[in-house]
Amino acid sequence: MSIQIDCFKAYDIRGRIPDQLNSDIAYRVANATAAFLGAKRVVLGRDIRQSSDELADAVAKGLIDAGVEVLDVGVGGTEMVYFATGYLEADGGIMVTASHNPADYNGLKLVRAESRPISGDTGLSDIRDIAERDDRLIAATAGHRRQIEIGQSYHAKLLGFVDLEVLKPLRIVVNAGNGGAGPTIDNLETSLPFEFIKVHHDPDGSFPNGVPNPMIEENRASTIDAIREHKADFGIAWDGDFDRCFFFDENGRFIEGYYIVGLLAKLLLKQSPGSAIIYDPRLTWNTLEVVSENGGRPVQSKSGHSFIKQVMREEDAVYGGEMSAHHYFRDFYYCDSGMIPWLLVSQLVSISGKSLSTLVDDCMEKFPASGEVNLKVADVAAAIAAISEKYAAKADAVDRTDGISMDFGDWRFNLRASNTEPVIRLNVESRADNKLMQDRLEELLSDLERLA
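RE: above sequence
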C-alpha cells in the first residue's frame, strides 16, 4: 500500500514515534535501501533509545526479506556503524538513532559501501520513493541476521590515533548525557592513564537528566560543576549517538567547536605535512590562519556531513572540521567521530604541558565568534535575500557556497538555512574586537527579527 513518509530529512531519517516513524516505515526503508544498493551484506546498529530495539528488528526483517546478510553490531554510537561498514567491507550500513532529538523521536542513518553517506542528493530521495510505493524486494532466498562483535577492533582503531606512551594521567570529566558514549569510555579506560569523572554515565533511553544535547546551554551545568568540583584538566560531553563531542576547559568554560577545529588541524598537519584540511563557511578566519601557518591547504566545503565527506575524499584531506562539533578523519573512512577528537586533545594537552584554556585563548581573542544563533523566520530565502541586499554593497567579499557569507575586513558573517530544521542560522566573527562582533550580531539579529 502506498503511503506518504514525512520523516526524511536532508541527511537522514528522523521522526516522532509512532506517527512519523514506526516499524512499518523502518521495514520499508530498510528493504528499499537493500534494493537501491543491490546490497548483500549490511551492518545494523542502534542507539539506547527505548524504541530502538523494535525499530532495529523491523530494519533487520526488511533487509532479510531482501536476501541480505545483516551484520548486527548491537547497541552503540553512529561511528561504530561507520567503522563496521568499512572494516567489514559491507555494502551498506543502517544506524537506528535520533541523535540529540527528544526521547519520543527516533531515526535512521544510512551509508553505502566504504561508509559513504546516503543523503538527499545521493540516493535518500530514491529510497523514500521506493519505500512510499512499497515496491518491496522479496528475495528467492531470505537473508539472515548475525551478531558481530567489533568492539575490540573499533577500540583499537580509536586508540591508534594517539601515542599512548606520551599520555599523562589527566583527570577528565566525561558526560555521556545517559546516551551511548558511556560503555565506549569504559572499554577505552583500561588502556588509558586517565582518571575519568563520570557524569550521567549510564545509558538510559528515557533521558532522566534531559536530552543529551550539549548545544543547549542549560545542559552544560552538570559538566561545568563536575570540572570545578574535581579540579579536572578538562571536560567532554556528547550527544546521544556520540558522533559529536563538546569541550570544556579546566575552568568549566565551554569551548566553541570552531576553536577545536584549529587545534586538531594543527596537530594532524604535523603528522601529515601539506595535507588538505576541510572547513565549512560558517566561521573561517581562525581555521584559515592555523592551516596556512602550519603548511596545510585549506579547502572550503558546504556545511553538512555528506558535503564534507565528499570533498574530503576528493582532496584526500587528513581532517575536516565543522564548528558544529563534527570532526572527520581520513583514517576513519573519512567519517566523523566523537571519540577521536578528545583523544587527540588529551594528547595535545599531555605533550604541550599546557591547559586547554591556554591552547585556545589566543585564537579566541584573535577571532571572537558569536557561536551559532538560530531563528525562525517566515521565509528563509526571502530573509537571506533581504540581508544580502542591505549588506552586499559594503562587503569586501561575498561568498555563496552555503547561504551567504560576507567579509568586511574587520568582521564577517554567514547566514544560511538549516538543512535539518525550519530555522535560519547566523554566525558572526571579528578580528580581535569582541565589541564589534557583538554589535554586528545585534544589528543582524534586529534585521532578522523584523523579517520573522
